[in-house]
Amino acid sequence: MIIRVPALGPSPSPVTDTGLRGVRLGQLLWRPFLNSALSVVPPLAKTVSGRADGSSIEAVIDTTAAWSDGEPVLARDVVAAAHRVDTVGLDILELADRRVRFIGDGAVRFVGSFTPARVTDGRTDLTITSGPYRLASLDRSRAALRHTVSNGMAPDTVEFIAMEDLDDALTELRHGRLDVILEADEAVVTEVINSPGPAVIMLPDAACLVQVLGFRAHHPTLTPAVCARLAQLIDRNAIASRIYRGLAHAGSWSLTAATGTMGTAQGEVALLVNAENRLRRATAECIVADWIRSGVTARIDVAPWATFTKRLHDGAFDCFLVSVRDTKETSGVLSRLTRSRSADELTATEISIHASWAALAPKALRHVPLLVAVTGGGIAC
Fold it and tell me: What secondary structure does DSSP assign to 167-227, as a single string?
């Protein structure tokens, strides 16, 4: 199965956050520690117990869990993988070969999003996986995954191709050279609906997208009051109707962390947006136009996906526009994306809400669970 994505981003690694990848390859390469409704593989933890306040979690690893080289997944592997990420305030203990304990206030939250990878000599080994696929090849434009054991139920190979131009992707789909277009936009949806051809539209409920405008925490001039004013100036209804042609509805302008009276922006405000998503770029243009009409000096700052995410990590931005899946996880994803210590540090506001669109060839319909796994969590580039 060949799948188009806007961009692949850095090498997939479950220990840094699969949600930051252009494609959530980690969903297919590694088993999550705990069960996930979006996962296509069973979790590593067979049984889990802990204190009522969630400050201590003890888990027993499934005895059938194995790495792709045949070695069993043991507690020491889980501990080593956990130490590759930010575990400040957590203690991870190896109690036995397949028994591990997480101690600390963030234990429940950590194990709920934790996906261990093999660590060799202190480095994450991306060539050894625990899920149904292994990484056969990877570069900036293509990632090939090969099934570790062919079972006839899942495709033997899954190939992700980074293709920015959606019109080219739709042409490839109609000519049978592509099976799936992930992150399709309104223009592709409309063309598929109105034109005959070997494609259908999937709108999975699990992949609702919330377009979010976020502001840098502790910005010297963009105080919460100023952010509140900038958020109020945006015509969300116009964005939903003009940009998304009614296929989205407007989000709320209320901010997650803005209090006090509203203020006025001082100096230029640059809105950072990634280059690969044409609807998001159009949304950014509308937002900046609204600000300029109200007397704010503003501009759009367009960057490729890899540069976009790096600048968010480094705090090199005034504000940014991104789509986040699942409103219940919005603040957590944004905090990880911008390396904020907590959601309360980040001021953010909803711009629009819509389904996640994908165009599929009919033969890909039987693999919808696999597609939901790689589109249903994290962020959309």
Answer: HHHHHHHHTTS-SEEEEE-HHHHHHHHHS-SS-EEE--GGG-EEEEEEE-TT-SS--HHHH
Residue 15 in any domain: the answer is no
State whether 275 and 296 are in the same domain.
yes
The verdict on 305 and 218 lying in the same domain is: yes
| Alpha-carbon span 156 to 148, nearest angstrom | 8
Q: What is the CA radius of gyration of the chain?
A: 21
Residue 323 near residue 210, CB atoms below 8 Å? yes
Q: Whole-prediction pTM value?
A: 0.66
215-236 per-position pLDDT tens digit: 988 888 888 888 888 998 999 9
Co-location of 106 and 214 in the same domain: no
CATH code, domain with 199: 3.40.190.10
- What tens digit of pLDDT does each residue of 334-347 get? 666 776 654 456 67
Burial string for 88-110 (b: 16+ CB within 10 Å, else e) reads eebebebeeebbbbbbbebbbeb
Q: What is the dihedral of CA 260, 238, 209, 252, to 10 degrees?
A: 20
